[in-house]
Amino acid sequence: MHRTSGRLKAEERTAWLFLSLFTILFAIFKLYPLIYGVAISFLDRNSLRNVYSNDFVWFENYRKVFSNATTMQAFGRTFLFSVMYTVFTMCFSILAAILLNRQFRGRTAVRTMFYMPYVTNLIAIGVVWNYILNPYKGPVNRLLLALGVAQDHLPLWLGGNGSALPMVAVIHTWVGLAFPVITLLAALQQVPRPLLEVADLEGASAFQRLRYVLLPSLKPTLIFILTITIINSFKNYTVIMALTEGGPGTATQVASMQIYADAFKYFRLGIASAEGALLASIIFVISLLVQRRSHEQ
To answer: Mean pLDDT throughout 7-33?
Structure first.
């Protein structure tokens, strides 16, 4: 009895040790930068001369953010990118998970391939996709030329004002598809077999099985993936930087790119911090609404 009690206390001390370590690291590398960034958003640090200024300007930086057309357009592109990325990720991950859940030769190898973009360096991915989608020398447009598409009608892909943002969203979806697919695959393994057997006996079509059996069974997992996907849709700086650097022009200049430019190119740290605080607030509110909506249904 005493040995068991002593072992439990030792395990409890170990647990508190790990929790304390996590709390300290979280406070240093996450919580402190967050609080410091919000604090800077209320200071007049908008030039290289005033980079260490402690002059309090209340909500002036936020007013400048909302009155700047370029910044508002960047936030608009961010919302558009988020919608495209979320829709692509949810649709493709559900389809891929259902297909990979079936028995076929080479299934393990195909599942493993889904991890490759997820663990590949994003700069390398950007270089490869820029070569593949090069409008003049890329293999995709060369193939289209071989199929009879006229030179004037070849798509510009990442070089077009209208096509760059959707293509970046598609590539970003491809890069991050591994996590939702694997998560959904694990959830599909838990779907009760009797439900699927009853659906087969009733002569349900593939769409009916998906709508009335699979999706209701996967609802908690889908809500979790949707929340993570929405959050990841706003964490798009590295992918866009690797693919287009915000171009052509400002076609892919989203909020994260605008924040970086204001902070490290123009040294408008107060305005950049206000933009960052607004973006974080938007992510938090959207995630909260998704969670609340899911609990109401």
So the answer is: 85
